Amino acid sequence: MGWYYCRMSHRRLWAAGGIIALAIIAGFMLSVPHTQDAPLPPSSVTVSAGVPTVVLRDVYKKGVHTITGSLLAPNACGTVSATATATDEPGIVVAISLEADEGVCLQIPTRAPFSTTVAAPQGVPITATVNGAQATTTAS
């Protein structure tokens, strides 16, 4: 047995190991996705397709309505502002401006609060618009 072991060359063993290692490396390189294969993110994020529902709360005191509320914004980085005007026909119109943030922001819908005041008679109906579109309102 010693005679067989002495004559055995390890060259074949190293060659077989090298071929197996090259096959594993080549298979890994072909199976790993590359960055150019990934889909590109959208270039601009738009505010939701529909008009969000607005939650309103009205407090009337001494001829002034203090209207507070919130709406579901696409992310926490957007800007929400509101102005209220008293009109003869519909009563009070709360115009809400929802501007999406242009920077990097986690895209998780978030409640965005707003507040505004207007002088108007008590008991008039309140409607709301978001970026000029009529919004559905609910009382809080």
- Continuous helix count: 2
**Rg on CA atoms, Å:** 33 Å
Mean pLDDT: 82
- Please give the order of strands in the largest beta sheet: 5-2-1-8
Number of strands: 8
The rounded distance between the terminal residues' Cα atoms is 92 Å
Strand fraction band?
35-45%
Low-pLDDT runs of 5+ residues are 43-48
Oligomer: single chain
Q: Determine the fraction of residues in helical runs and give it as a percent range.
A: 10-25%
Q: What is the approximate shape?
A: rod-shaped
What would you say this structure looks like, in words?
The chain has 140 residues and is an alpha/beta fold. The chain has 2 domains: 2-37, no CATH class; 54-139, no CATH class. It is 19% helix and 39% strand. It contains 2 helices and 8 strands; from the N terminus they run H-H-E-E-E-E-E-E-E-E. It has helices at 2-7, 11-31; strands at residues 54-61, 64-73, 79-86, 92-99, 110-119, 126-130, 133-134, 137-139. The strands form 2 sheets. Strands 5-2-1-8 form a 4-stranded mixed sheet, with no helix packed on it. The protein is rod-shaped and about 105 Å long. The model is unreliable at 43-48 (pLDDT under 50).
Structural features:
8 strands; 140 residues; alpha/beta; 2 helices; four-stranded mixed β-sheet; 2 domains; 39% strand
